[in-house]
Amino acid sequence: MDMQTSFRTRLIAEGILFPTGVDGLFGRNGTFEAVYDGLEHAITNFGRGSGAEVMRFPPAMAQTTFEKSGYMKNFPHFAGTVHCFCGDDRAHHALMGQMERGEDWMGKQEPADIVLTPAACYAVYPIVAKRGVLADAGHLVDVASYCFRHEPSLEPTRMQLFRMREYVRIGTPAQVLAFREEWMERGQAFATSLELPFEVDVANDPFFGRAGKLMADSQRMQNLKFELLIPVNDGAGPTACLSFNYHMSYFGDTWDMRTPDGNAAQTACVAFGMERLVLALLRHHGFDLDQWPAGVRETLALR
């Protein structure tokens, strides 16, 4: 059995993941979703009392918002757009003929003005910006969304459609850096409560192209991104299951979010890769939830 895919093979054999014929696109069974629901409960508990505004979004966003975010400048290889049929009866007849003949029928599809969401926090910034100048205390958002990245893989931890939960802090440099430091501690306590092995290390995003290496090196040198890594896949390095990100004033400048002193707001976030955390728990505690450690079951409120 191939070391890279053996965990995936076991997940499919147990009926926990349902293959769809596309690498990185899976259905999930009740066991998987029970653990997912438990993680949602646990993350909410770890963030309780913070006064975060709750926002939940569908897996798509306006194309204009996506374009303004600058995502295509740095990650065009991950982006996914939505197209649809907008023709008349004749065009429909021609399309059906193409499909019956096994021809490419996608050429006549037209943009639907929406793009698949690449990261949960992207939908937050234009909403907060429209409200005007931030309060002295800044703002905190608890956001979640399905996200898409065109990254086909046999690794079960590298899904093309996955769920992301984030806490996003918007404010002054002191406020957002204090938030990130606090959540780097909370994130480790969270992993410990799940009895998972982990390490935290500086990281970088997978920027595109020749300039991407320079951007990645700069990101690491400035310690803008840290990841909490957990061993999950057979024969591979540990998987990033949480990330702690400092964006400086990038989104504040992009969306004209301002602090009371008139400066561009800065932002930071802690992001939970929900499917990856489910898979990490299944990998380390097994597929029978009744046999999981009592402390983990309590943290996840598993019944």
CATH H-level name... which superfamily? Answer: Bira Bifunctional Protein, Domain 2
What does the radius of gyration come to? Answer: 21 Å
CATH-level-2 architecture: 2-Layer Sandwich
Count of helical regions: 11
Largest sheet: 7 strands, mixed
- Fraction in helix: 25-40%
Strand order of the largest sheet: 3-7-8-12-11-10-9
> Which structural class do you get from the secondary structure elements?
alpha+beta
For the record, the count of structural domains works out to: 1
Per DSSP E runs of 2 or more residues, the count of β-strands stands at 12
Distance between the termini: 34 Å
Kindly identify the CATH topology: BirA Bifunctional Protein, domain 2
**Uncertain ranges:** 1-5
Outline, from the CA principal axes?
globular
SSE pattern: HEEHEEHHEHEHEEHEHEEHEHH
Name of the CATH class: Alpha Beta
User: What percentage of the residues does DSSP assign to strands (E)?
Assistant: 15-25%
Mean pLDDT across residues: 94
